[in-house]
UniProtKB/TrEMBL annotation, chains A, B, C, D:
<dbReference type="InterPro" id="IPR020004">
    <property type="entry name" value="UDP-GlcNAc_Epase"/>
</dbReference>
<dbReference type="GO" id="GO:0006047">
    <property type="term" value="P:UDP-N-acetylglucosamine metabolic process"/>
</dbReference>
<dbReference type="GO" id="GO:0004553">
    <property type="term" value="F:hydrolase activity, hydrolyzing O-glycosyl compounds"/>
</dbReference>
<dbReference type="InterPro" id="IPR029767">
    <property type="entry name" value="WecB-like"/>
</dbReference>
<feature type="domain" description="UDP-N-acetylglucosamine 2-epimerase">
    <location>
        <begin position="24"/>
        <end position="372"/>
    </location>
</feature>
<dbReference type="Pfam" id="PF02350">
    <property type="entry name" value="Epimerase_2"/>
</dbReference>
<keyword id="KW-0326">Glycosidase</keyword>
<protein>
    <submittedName>
        <fullName>UDP-N-acetylglucosamine 2-epimerase (Hydrolyzing)</fullName>
        <ecNumber>3.2.1.183</ecNumber>
    </submittedName>
</protein>
<keyword id="KW-0378">Hydrolase</keyword>
<dbReference type="InterPro" id="IPR003331">
    <property type="entry name" value="UDP_GlcNAc_Epimerase_2_dom"/>
</dbReference>
């Protein structure tokens, strides 16, 4: 029997972490052939190219798609998606996959979904059904309505996709593959690298041995004019904390300029002797950094997802993670330096949280591969009501 | 006060008929400024360019967007959409509309929806919430999840959009603007033109004075390999009927080649003395043709929609209009020459059907314009569950 | 030793005829591997798809590139070229050719030239150095300045390319591959098919046994507003001739609408009992048609090129073939019905012309393949003065 | 009388300096209307956005075109050009210019040339006819063959364009507008700003009062694999010099990564107490910096062009400026640290060079505007031999 060809399109560094164990499971599955397409910012150095990690992890790349139109504005985001469709439809034509897999909800994943569904190729969507406050919110549910199979990460996401009129027979709560990765790391959580040495970055090099906080805050697409003001609240709160801080630069997104400018201006105005700034970090190293930290501050989905399983305390700021399911590790606050500061202090008192399986138990990758191998092929569906 | 700028994108001849009275109402509304963009096949002669009707109707065109990539295959449909995004995002940049309106569910309307929503421009969707059997089905609901306002055409559509998680405050059953047009025509239904003279076309010129049937059957995107076989069933059924038939060539769509080839081959094999073939017809003339006909055969949405209001008997073939609401005028049949023939005969016995307001009462255009003028602007939404 | 990979991009039916024997020679050469890319109108049914001929001739197609943007206007020509660059650069990335070959001077061949030269792939240009009156004129010489090797078709073309500052070591007068084809046909010139039966077409079916004329007239890009008036002069002249005429519809080009509309209108106004209209014809059949005709009327380059070798009388109308080298078979006239008529009559008296080798002796394909196998690879050049 | 609409497309910071005085002269000309289009890297912050200078200089921008596809590889350069064509043809459609002006020879200027010439808009080319060692060489002469008017910068360039078969009536040696700018600055050459304060940058802040050198070295497109090795030679030579150095980061181009990486690595390995690194500088300030410097090292065209007029000593490295005309101020060397070092020393002994008018006398902008106002419109040409 011919192996089923499964084409997975990865468009950004964080998406790679969220699908990596599924890629491994597909690659190793006797009935599947993996066609890995790397696209958009996942190819670009200045966003911490995922391509190196991907190659180090031993994956072969079937096609590279450069489709990021420079401009860091909303028009460029639309055009990047348009170019993505032009390019990906050629790629799918060449690779003739049996199923295309699109990951999560970044704006450019829409290109994968449109090319596949318009070409009558069965489309699987990983991590649909969640709720956030962003253009991602529209993109995610819109892709759900184009997708033929749904591999969601939590029970509430499963319920939501079914309420969206999808056939329950094709909606599966596999858990999130990012949790698989976290589970593996949690088995060997010790720090086995020096972050300053391995990742460079800029700023002071505070002593991490007595504990430190991690900050990762991205701009919110629907609030881009406010991105500078928002980051300043966090900067002040963390500055007042007066403890070692490892800060990660934001993703490329419309609005990243405001966030970055805010950080740069703050650096020039203040003597940040406790701050070190990183551009990015290998997922595994980042998880180890989190496990050994006092907690994560910002609006990264890692705080909601991996940190739930890992029990890492999280101060979640603003609307970006909105209505996503949470474990017991999260305190939600507004863009307000006092609220942020107080939440950090509260976590400091309570310490580590209990592990929660709300986003899966560490076997999502295997489940997804198994489903891709066994589900009947379909690209024709009708709303269930 | 500045007028609100309402940008409506029309991408095909049938879409124009479905939005025309709304365009008029927007144009005449004291608080609105109409920005009409004509794109895709609506610009192209060989699909019966809508542009002439549009200009004859007195509308000014703010921008023309050529984005149809030739190829009549599924890859070309995807790429046409990608090019549409590239072009429309430039157009929206130039026109700075307050609201963008996208019509119905043809594949290329997705370009309008993506460009507007990615650029944080409030998006109104006309005719969401319906159910059909096609790629249109995916496109329609996917656009619903990108849209901020919903102007639907029937009560069941309204319920469906709300079940899709949209805020009921922004979902309005306005009825369908195409019914407005039908209502106007029904006031003066007399034939005021000679179709052979005015529209040319090919084939015999059967005498229409003792009644005639109209046929309009498009290929179904998800069944393109079958499009030739499907059209042949209809051809045989109508041929056996032995009555005057006015036949319309199919829309441009992946699969149109199969349908067209089937028709051409049949013409060569048979002496079609009762058949005349038209490329297209002005909407008003087409409605008069229907009102004075014995009935409509095929899978056009006009049969489901306008004919409900007009009481014109319809033989609806196959899956294309699937689960759309119906008046009492429709008999549904499979791609089967006998079933088609029997349904025609049955209609012939019963004659004209009663008018049904299932798709609105003739004031949809006015309602839509009123809503566009008064609704609060928003481009940020969250699923309701 | 690895074979050199030679990627030839064919973008239109007439270009295919002009490169076919070179394709064969490349395919059969022991040191070369042919990568044939078929693009633009060569893929499209309605321009008499070259793809069928290509496949019948036994060529494998390495990639198909759909890049024709519909619109039949000048903007669409520019955009078609832009899309061609996007697509072809992906194709070249995938195929990694050692040399790319671009043929002649149609506007979309510029996409091949830009993609290859910008990607540092050595570029060979076939049929540079000629002179015509059209956008082709700009395109042709512009491509010469991007190309690394020049395979020209006549001595004057060779001199011209060298005067353009190209290194004489890389400029070769191979003759034109279309002459190879003509030479083969001339060995067996007999009509072995019934054109009406094999190619359909529309119009009367005049008796060809007592001689007939062939007409092929394309619009001129720089004179598109005049294309209808221009074709009318030819229509009148040929109509007055009152002899059997086989007329070929124009190429797709900006302005084709004017030409086509002119022909259609003339058909409706006149009873054309001597006219038959063809969409297109296999190159071999077309050559046989010419050999057995009384002559060719219009502005096709076939009249200048193949007909020189074949000795077929040609009435060449207008500026399109401008300053191309001519054999003794050509009479040049303006867009003027009287001049056209008189030239036809003059040919009628003189009959067949002598064969001229101005465009080569029938071995161009072999020469080109030999050069592609032996020339040093280079993509870096400097003007010679 | 209506003013002639002159659409100038600026695609990069250095191109802006090379056309700025012409823009002013067009803007001020009573018979001309300036339509300034800013595109490509000229819009992007990370390449030292020209847009700020443009707006500070009081120009209104008619359209912005984002067309840079990220990737810093050769495929991306091709695709950036393809996207440029798609976008610019829309812009030209909207602006309906009477003449389009394209500047110099960067790869993306080809998009301007193709869009204009394919749309039958008369095209003027500024700075054709020069000779360099790069993809620019192909691009420049290729654009000459598309252009209808030629405004060249030197006598040898004028001769070369005429030898390329252009009509001498349309080839004008206007001199280079960048010289106009240099002439203005030379009237008031005093340093009126603190470069460290005004432009930031990184590195030490050497004392400039006793003299300093300026370095600006870009990667060469046809030698991208060598860009890192090439920059290292310069770094070593200048490091050994042990005098204050102001170093400018390279342009965005395929290969910029190698150059940048080379610089960064050298910085980490050496203690560069005499080096300061700038991203970019306003043209006027940069000229003042040069006038007051000991000389310029690298391969920037400013060294060949403005520095000829200014008499600034230049060490020109490698093939990038190849066969361009030179004043007496230039010493040419290979990518070799010893040659570079020796040339610097030789300049140090000789001091300032004499001013040369090889690239014009400071009135190019006015001459160009005058020609644009008076030349007959034409978009149809034929090679002169």
């Amino acid at each position: 029997m011919n192996k089923r060809k499964i084409c997975v399109v990865v468009t950004a560094r964080p998406s790679y972490s969220r699908i990596m164990t599924a890629l491994q499971a597909i690659k190793e599955h006797p009935d599947l052939e993996l066609q890995l397409v790397v696209a958009a910012s996942a190819l670009l150095d200045r966003y911490g190219s995922a391509i190196n990690y991907i190659q180090n992890d031993g994956f072969e790349i079937a096609a590279k798609v450069f489709n990021v139109l420079e401009g860091e504005n909303l028009t460029a985001a639309a055009k990047t998606t348009g170019i993505g469709i032009l390019e990906l439809s050629t790629v799918f034509d060449n690779l003739s996959p049996d199923i295309v897999v699109t990951v999560a909800d970044r704006f450019e994943t829409m290109a994968t979904a449109i090319s596949a569904s318009y070409m009558n190729i069965p489309l699987a969507h990983v991590q649909g059904g969640e709720v956030t406050g962003n253009i991602d919110e529209k993109v995610r549910h819109s892709i759900t309505k184009l997708a033929d199979y749904h591999f969601v990460a939590s029970e509430s996401a499963q319920q939501r996709v079914i309420r969206l009129g999808e056939d329950p027979e094709y909606v599966f709560n596999t858990g999130c593959p990012s949790i698989d990765l976290a589970a593996r790391i949690l088995e060997r959580p010790d720090f086995n690298f020096d972050p300053y040495l391995k990742y460079g970055g800029v700023g002071s090099k505070p002593d991490l041995s007595k504990g430190y906080w991690v900050v990762m805050q991205h701009p919110v697409t629907t609030e881009i004019q406010k991105s500078r003001a928002q980051i300043e609240e966090t900067l002040h709160a963390v500055y007042n904390l007066n403890e070692p801080v490892l800060w990660f630069w934001p993703n490329v997104d419309a609005g990243a300029d405001g966030t970055s400018t805010g950080i740069r201006a703050f650096r020039e105005m203040h003597d940040l002797e406790n701050f070190h700034f990183f551009k990015n970090m290998e997922p595994n190293d980042f998880l180890r950094l989190l496990i050994n930290s006092k907690g994560l501050i910002g609006n990264s989905s890692v705080g909601i997802r991996e940190c739930a399983y890992l029990g890492v305390p999280v101060v979640n700021i603003g609307s970006r993670q909105n209505a996503r399911d949470r474990g017991h590790n999260v305190l939600d606050v507004n863009y307000n330096r006092d609220q942020i500061f107080d939440a950090i202090k509260s976590h400091q008192q309570n310490g580590k949280a209990n592990s929660s399986h709300v986003y899966g138990g560490g076997d999502a990758g295997t489940k997804i591969a198994e489903l891709l191998a066994s589900l009947p092929l379909r690209f024709h569906k009708t709303i269930m009501y």
